[in-house]
Amino acid sequence: MSTVLITGASGGIGYELAKLFARDRHNLILVARSADKLAQVAHELQAHSITVKTVALDLTQPPAAKFLFDQLQRENIAVDILINNAGFGTYGEFAQMPEEEILGQINLNVTALTELTRLFLPAMVQRRSGRIMNVASTAGFQPGPYLAVYYATKAYVISFSEAIANELRHSSVTVTCFCPGATHTGFAARSGTEKSRIFRILGGMSAERVALDGYRAVMEGRTLAISGLHNWAIAQSTRFAPRKMVTAVSRWVAEKTES
Ligand SMILES: NC(=O)c1ccc[n+]([C@@H]2O[C@H](COP(=O)([O-])OP(=O)(O)OC[C@H]3O[C@@H](n4cnc5c(N)ncnc54)[C@H](OP(=O)(O)O)[C@@H]3O)[C@@H](O)[C@H]2O)c1
Description:
The chain is 49% helix and 15% strand. The radius of gyration is 18 Å and the shape is globular. It has 10 helices and 9 strands. Bound molecules: NADP nicotinamide-adenine-dinucleotide phosphate.
């Protein structure tokens, strides 16, 4: 039985991914800040006769990734599949954005993801087996006015993941970058995007559907996977259009509307 570590598993896409891995009888290590929610998820998923370990941790606090790695080392737990899913965005003009929101997004979406990858990857390479899935977003394919830091962190995740997937092309370890588009989870409320056109016009996919796409992508070892045909088409459309136009459209989509 393999062991899967999922960050951000107390809700949303991470929770749905945890359910899919549990159904296929993988042992789980679930990480998020809310100890109570994690305990509830663990209780639910243990019904699949698997081991579920929970670690309540704020991954925006820099030693957190190392702390998690060291704890698992001490307990002799090897991670076969790492899912870097935890992430958040904050809506607003950059000039007015509180510093803690800016650094929090960078620390979680970029630093923790990179550190966890660096910490767990060498053992996978040595064992000649392992999978990593980094959850980016379709936000990573263009600049995002009003969500400038969030979009930039996701552009990093795409670039970083594709690069290391290429470095590992001759190994049996796979790195998958998974890009959901708008998805109905706690993300919109946390980011303040509920009234933006991102959700009002583009609608959103269910977390269950998105997680299933992610699950398939990581198990197939795909390098880049975009959830939903419409999201794939939107991501492709940004490739050949003038960048100023792409940014202007991205701003319009992010703007809030009353209806
Ligand atoms: N929903 C969307 O529209 C959408 C679209 C594209 C990409 N994504 C990406 O998908 C991933 C999952 O998002 P989601 O939509 O499922 O969001 P969500 O419902 O808000 O879930 C986020 C998860 O991350 C955990 N988390 C948040 N801050 C954390 C921290 N500092 N340390 C540890 N864990 C933390 C949360 O648990 P606690 O609060 O308990 O810590 C929760 O389990 C993110 O990377 C997001 O950027 C989402």
